[in-house]
Predict the 3D structure of the following.
Amino acid sequence: MCPSCFRDRYYGYRHKLSSWTYMYSTVIIDNMNTYDKILAAALRVLEEEGGTQFSTRAVTAIAQVTAPTLYHHFGNADGLLSAAIAEAFKQLFESKIAAVESTIPEMALRQGWDDYVSFAAARPRIYAAMMGRLLEGAHIEAADQSYQALVQNIQRVADEGKLAVSVQAAADLVWASANTASWLYVTAQIRKAPPPKPNVVDLIRESVMQIILIHNPDADSSPNSEDT
């Protein structure tokens, strides 16, 4: 995969983020039903403030509803936060499904990895809240679906005889490396530092691909071969 590919998919997510941000704008929220209005406002607060600063007061102000109305639909603040994070996972999964992927299993695996990391790069506060919820033991269907989509991509690689390790080991390694790269964007924001450079992200991805894939020494299969 060329060095600019992650950059291209990242900017594609930035474009999606702009559309999501527009969806959370006051004009659009005003035209939603009450449940969706509160949920969109909660996502906007997560986007701007993160999970630790999440407050129902901020949500009700954006959604222009009363606290009793919020509690009627979501029970309490934790119920609202759970619903917002589940919606964020749903958006991640649906965006991966909608993405145009290569018919070559190895390339599709790389593209899926890039899409996952690009989501975190474009929405680091929401990504951090999503992972925090999983660490608390929450079961989120869209998160399970995202992981199963990864396993299916890896199985297709295995079916072509190009997997050097078991499907489960490969899934664990890819999942771990994607989240490692994703956390670089979260920690950069915490440290008020520049985000990681695309070539650093590429190196993380390709290091795990070197481990899990069987490489043909006779083929010029290097992801950066077009630049050599």
Q: What stands out?
A: The chain is about 75% helix and 0% strand. The two ends are 13 Å apart (CA to CA). Residues 167-190 form the longest helix (24 residues).
